[in-house]
Amino acid sequence: MSAQLERPVPYRSRASSDAGPVAAIAVTSGEPAGVGPDICLALAASHLANRVVLLGDREMLQARARQLAVPARLREPGSPPEPGSIACLHLPLSHACRPGTLDPRNAGYVISLLDRALAGCRSGEFAALVTAPVQKSVINDGGIPFVGHTEYLAERTGTAHVVMMLAGGGLRVALATTHLALKDVPRALTRESLERTLRVLAAELTAHFGIRSPRILVAGLNPHAGEGGYFGREENDVIGPVLEKLRAEGLQLTGPLPADTLFVRERLANADCVLAMYHDQGLPVLKYASFGKGVNITLGLPMIRTSVDHGTALDIAGTGRAQADSLIEAVETAMEMARAEARSAAR
Fold first, then answer.
1. Domain presence at residue 2
2. Which is nearest to 46 in space by CA: 126, 165, 130?
3. Are 155 and 165 members of one domain?
């Protein structure tokens, strides 16, 4: 594999991007001690400044801007845009924070950002939600059970089945299972869950990426896709039967394929997305191709949600070393998805 992958599967929508304007995109600033505020402030100097509303504590954000020597000005949502400014919906911190120093007392603040953005998406105030990274451990330390953004938003919206998909480097990679110990993956991989994942994936690729008949490559679970059952039965007993059923309904599914040859250029050139069976089966390839510029997308929610592909990076928070590339890609992707949704609704 070359150091620079080609782009056989553009993750941008195939549909034209010349749709009309959509509502503002909500951007939550995430863990206040991490790089979330840093990268969010960088949006003020980007071409997206007038398309987003930043959610966070205004005093904290202004202090971080001074520390970073970033000439970002925060204005009230709905006020006239000015060069170098960004709309900020103020939600107060519970306690003052310092970059790099976690404080469980601010766990409620971090959750309040999500709740306010979610309410805005439900009401139509926002067209989509983009999330800066949070620190799961400190939220739990603050007494709030929290597995992650995806699970929290699914619970809050009553969504029974969501799918995690990352995009970048010319690839889209979705996951049949997410954050599980490897020993637990075979048990979690059932016919029912796999069928629901593939249905959600195909429907979302059509609704939010403008792909009328998505072509999906499906990985096997075991080496050599089970080698006819010699290395495992999941391909024979679970994956294969689900693919046969859905292909009979018209879905374009190829697999189960051996994961070690799934990402070769010839296969990707004729596909719109890859479905990996577990987290580290598919994401190392995507992150090799796009690290720092990838986008995490949650499919299946009654709203559009994208996120950065990195964590809170506490060690560089407030230093000026954080890069906003992934956040910018996440906002652009959310905007394109919102436009595709609007076009679909208009038809």
1. no
2. 130
3. no
Asked if residue 38 belongs to a domain, the reply is yes
Digits of tens for pLDDT over the chain (347 positions)? 233 333 333 333 333 344 455 799 999 999 999 999 999 999 999 999 999 999 999 999 999 999 999 999 999 999 999 899 999 999 999 999 999 999 999 999 999 999 999 999 999 999 999 999 999 999 999 999 998 898 899 999 999 999 999 999 999 999 999 888 999 999 999 999 999 999 999 999 999 998 999 999 999 999 999 888 999 999 999 999 999 999 999 999 999 999 999 999 999 999 999 999 999 999 999 989 988 889 999 999 999 999 999 999 999 999 999 999 999 999 999 999 999 888 877 77
42 and 120 housed in the same domain = yes
Q: How many domains does the chain have?
A: 2
3: in domain: no
249 plus 326 within the same structural domain: no
4 in a structural domain: no
Domain holding 341: CATH number? Answer: 3.40.718.10
Q: CA 313 to CA 289: how far, in whole Å?
A: 20
Does residue 268 share a domain with residue 167? yes
Judgement on whether residues 184 and 146 belong to the same structural domain of the protein? no
